[in-house]
Structure prediction request, 222 residues.
Amino acid sequence: DTGVSQDPRHKITKRGQNVTFRCDPISEHNRLYWYRQTLGQGPEFLTYFQNEAQLEKSRLLSDRFSAERPKGSFSTLEIQRTEQGDSAMYLCASSLGGVGNSPLHFGNGTRLTVT
Amino acid sequence: AQRVTQPEKLLSVFKGAPVELKCNYSYSGSPELFWYVQYSRQRLQLLLRHISRESIKGFTADLNKGETSFHLKKPFAQEEDSAMYYCAPYYGQNFVFGPGTRLSVLP
Prediction:
């Protein structure tokens, strides 16, 4: 499967713990996005990379959230001191920038449950 | 902030009936418009984009800049069309997703 892959698929953690998720985009895609989705809502933008540069970050994003894409390939999203409100599906998507507004290719997501 | 509204959370139609899923977006320049779909137990995927003017799985979408709407239509719904549908304008360097409409096509 050469699509976007995310790991883990599910994560259950206790409030106050740190968690890290990984996303492997489609190999030739230079843009990588993180979205969060809660029940009954559409995906909500968190942050966006072009190659290794983080170009945009949602103003709604708490300082507890940080994302990296060190070599312009895979990306990690870390949430520190998790709260119950962080429970959601975290989606990663990639696209090929530089050819107009290339559509997003999504992974299956990581479902986070904070107890 | 850019906003996208999809007024129906759930839309139920019978097989063979026409279907229209509504989408309105807040005005900011001329965003490119997309519809994404999520079938049961599958990942979110592109259904169609306005610029390509393609008809995918019998769906088309009409852009009305005056009303800032991008409604999705299909003349004859099929059971396999049952899914969640998200309208997603592309603003700047980012897609903004609507809350989604669940389409249920009844036999």
